[in-house]
Amino acid sequence: MDNNRVYVFDTTLRDGEQVPGCQLTTVEKIEVAKELEALGVDIIEAGFPISSPGDFQSVVEISKAVSEPVICALTRANTKDIDAAAEALRFAKRKRIHTGIGASDMHIKYKFNSTREEILKRGADAVKYARQFVDDVEFYAEDAGRADNEFLARMVEAVIAAGATVVNIPDTNGYCLPDQYGAKIKYLMDHVSNIDKAIISVHCHNDLGLATANTIAGIMNGARQVECTINGIGERAGNTSLEEVAMILKTHHSLGLHTNINSKHIYGISTLVSTMMRMPVQPNKAIVGRNAFAHSSGIHQDGVLKHRENYEILNPEDVGIATNSIILTARSGRHALKHHLERLGYKLDKINLDEVYQRFLEMADQKKEISDADLQQLMGDGDEKNYVDKAIKLMLLQVVCGDPLRPMATVKLKINGEEKEASAAGNGPVNATINAIHEIIKDDIDLDEFSIQAMHGGSEDVSKVNMRVKYNGQSYYGFGYSTDIVNASVNAYVDALNKIY
Ligand code: KIV
Ligand code: ZN
């Protein structure tokens, strides 16, 4: 075994997808899984099969669609969960069951109402049971970040003896400092007698902004698998970002460690995940944020032009960001549009380029220059993303408003092929439009949350709207964009309706 090789375990589709509003359809998950394969990840955690029929089916379909990476399914330490995972993984060419239980006294007492000895046995029994189905079993010692190191070492030894091939030491609550987490991994490397029979994995959460630092501390002390997500998405403050860890290892040759990641795919998959999950990347996010390679102060611009490395430790092209950009404007042709869509990770065989080009021209007519973010908005709202025909389509929107006019809206929707039209008044143009939609839909839907944002600023800018609506006690999320704020709002509302129906 190459001891300098760090295995990359991606959990975007499991830990990342747990974020409210980020849920993907099975078709979308397959798309992300294929891009993860192209990126070169070693293991894809495809879901938690017992948690829902949708998650189960996603693990089945990803197992069929992807051949190179190991496909992993999460379970708790019980036979029912493990049976479901084994069944969901039946088509995977290379498969892993990821089972585990709490390791901190807090979890043992207040989550399981149990004792250390009982928990040790349950953990080892789960590993033995899972090994009946697969040769590759990973064990997670939940809340290991706050667990007593001596007990943790006994747990790791017991599960390796029971057949675990990988042992995950999660800092579930993002509590540890880098030196504490590094010391924890070192303690295990030094005190677990059978440690050479398994790989130690690091899984860090970002509650204190330390996920990447802790992950690197873990690797520097002997861990050889990193668990991370694209853009660092995940519950609360998120998980470790895959792109940060991959680029740290690529940049710091002195660590002498390497991964199988093809870094040129990083920007494409980052934009794909951000668009599909409707989770914008913060502009100053390391590696993939809009400003990550933007130099605005005169001194820095001058320095970069003289010698790029004066102010850039990474080459943007290494992560798939084109620097000699072909700028997109209303005069650009289909070829330029195609070039940028491909660079952003869109699958051209699934896209009706002529139709996208018409929408691109409409947007470009209203803006001087079309940025990557604009293109993502353009694609994110289209059928190309889901590759399915939407049940509800907006055919017409007419709004009258002003001072002292009473806002009125007329809306025509095509619902499963049938056109329906209604008009309504409201206390503003958006309210009037939503009232008109309600006249057509006649269902009990509440608009729970509404946010509108300009992409960059400026009155000619594209606005994006995020909405949350409630129907039958369940929340649904919608997203829309347009240079017209009423249109963007209706697009978001119709997007949410399509999820309901
Ligand atoms: O953070 C965590 O502890 C986890 C485990 C389920 C692996 O995600
Ligand atoms: Zn986690």
From TrEMBL:
The keyword Amino-acid biosynthesis applies. GO terms for molecular function: 2-isopropylmalate synthase activity; acetyl-CoA C-acetyltransferase activity; manganese ion binding. It catalyses: 3-methyl-2-oxobutanoate + acetyl-CoA + H2O = (2S)-2-isopropylmalate + CoA + H(+). Keywords: Amino-acid biosynthesis, Branched-chain amino acid biosynthesis, Cytoplasm, Leucine biosynthesis, Manganese, Metal-binding, Transferase. It is an enzyme of class 2 (transferase). Pathway: Amino-acid biosynthesis; L-leucine biosynthesis; L-leucine from 3-methyl-2-oxobutanoate: step 1/4. CDD domains: DRE_TIM_IPMS (cd07940). Pfam families: HCS_D2 (PF22617), HMGL-like (PF00682), LeuA_dimer (PF08502). SUPFAM superfamilies: 2-isopropylmalate synthase LeuA, allosteric (dimerisation) domain (SSF110921), Aldolase (SSF51569). The keyword Manganese applies. GO terms for cellular component: cytoplasm. Mn(2+) binds at D15, H203, H205, N239. GO terms for biological process: L-leucine biosynthetic process. Its cofactor is Mn(2+). It comes from the Bacteria. Residues 393-501 are annotated as: Regulatory domain. PANTHER family: 2-ISOPROPYLMALATE SYNTHASE 1, CHLOROPLASTIC-RELATED (PTHR10277:SF9), HOMOCITRATE SYNTHASE-RELATED (PTHR10277). Belongs to the alpha-IPM synthase/homocitrate synthase family. LeuA type 1 subfamily. This is 2-isopropylmalate synthase. It comes from Chitinophaga japonensis. The gene is leuA.
